[in-house]
Amino acid sequence: MNEDSTEDPDDGSVALCASCDRCRSRKTKCDGQRPCGNCLAKYMKKNKLS
């Protein structure tokens, strides 16, 4: 059997979802910070226009 099988990797790694809900729903890149750079920029832009 091939040990480099991609069907069931057993390398001990765990995939974590670091993106915030807004970036996940908009399918944009999230930097993982809270609040993330995208959300902060949107907030600043929204408040600057008001």
What is the topology?
Blueprint: H1 21-26, H2 37-49
Structure characterization notes:
- With 50 residues, this protein is an all-alpha fold.
- It has one domain.
- It contains two helices and no strands.
- The protein has helices at 21-26, 37-49.
- It is elongated and about 50 Å long.
- The chain starts with 20 loop residues before the first helix and ends with a helix.
Largest sheet: none
Low-confidence stretches: none
Oligomer description: single chain
Question: SSE order, as H and E?
Answer: HH
Helices, by number, come to: 2
Radius of gyration: 18 Å
How many β strands by DSSP?
0
Distance between the termini: 63 Å
Question: Structural class per helix/strand content?
Answer: mainly alpha
Q: What is the averaged pLDDT score?
A: 79
Share in β-strands: under 5%
Structural shape: elongated
Q: Domains counted in the coordinates: how many?
A: 1
Tell me roughly what share of residues is in helical segments: 25-40%
GO molecular function, one term: zinc ion binding
Organism: Phaeodactylum tricornutum
Protein name: Zn(2)-C6 fungal-type domain-containing protein
Domain Zn(2)-C6 fungal-type: 19-39
